[in-house]
Structures are given as C-alpha cells and as structure tokens.
Amino acid sequence: MSTKINFQGKVLSKSEKILIVVSRFNSDITEKLLKGTEKRLLELGIHQADIDVIIVPGAIEIPVVTSLMASQNKHAAIICLGAVIRGETSHYDYVCGQVSDGCARISLETKKPIVFGILTTENEAQAYERLGGNHGHKGYEFAETTIEMIQVINALRQ
After folding, report:
1. Of 47, 75, 91, 135, which one is the catalytic site residue?
2. 135 catalytic, yes or no?
3. What is the reported pTM?
4. What CATH architecture does domain 18-157 belong to?
5. How many whole angstroms separate alpha carbon 64 and alpha carbon 38?
6. Beta strands in 24-112 (DSSP E)
7. 3 vs 36, which has greater pLDDT?
8. How far apart are CA 30 and CA 34, in angstroms?
C-alpha cells in the first residue's frame, strides 16, 4: 500500500523560522517580490519575528549566502529571491545557470527546502507581469511552496 503526502493549501500548526535571501540588483522588482513573499507568509501563519531577510548585491551572490545560512540550521527553509533580465550578452545565461544550479545543490546537500524564487525573464515587462499581473504574484507562490515543502519534509522525517 502506498502513502500519499499532500499538504497543499494547509498552514503550519506552529511557526517556523524562514530566511529570505534577496538580490538588490533590479531592486524595483525584487523589493515587490520580497513584499509579496512576506505578505503571503504572514497570511499563512508565519510570525513576522520568524522571517529573517538578508540582502545581497546580485543574484550570483545568493547561493554562497544561502549555503552558509543553510549549514547553520537556524531556518526551516530558505527562499531565494531575485530578478535576472536578459540583456544583450550571454551574461544572462551564465547567471541563471549558476544561481539555479547553486540553489539546487544546496537543497540536495542540506535536505532543506531552498525555494528558487529568481525571476528569469526576457524583459522588465515580463518581470512585472509576475508581480501581480497576468501571471499572478510569484512572491505568493514562493511563500506557498515554502510552507508546503516544510510540511512535506517534516512528515518524511518522522
């Protein structure tokens, strides 16, 4: 007989500490992403005192801070927020690849939810569409994913 674990849409029974690592680059976008993520975490039952935020210069700096903080084991999950917008060079491809690989590696190594909340868009208009436009508010989705993954991992560890 198989076991089905599904916590979608449920809130935590107790507050967990959550860290948000957010890039300052493209701050007009990342600040809105951060505000939406924090708002939704509060709606889902996380206390403001249990939300820590670290601001780093750019997306490429997110994995090293995330790795350091994950190894300290002070937070149930880490949400990585940023906005990488394609420019005229291949720099976009390198940044996106390194950040996504770094976040995935940290999650696998630490067995901790590391939520990849980096918007990777072709232009600023697409980024803004993901901040409450036609694509909803991705910050809300990242918060919901975080809560669900904390619950799934906690259940699997029991």
Report:
1. 91
2. no
3. 0.92
4. 3-Layer(aba) Sandwich (3.40)
5. 22
6. 51-56, 77-85
7. 36
8. 6
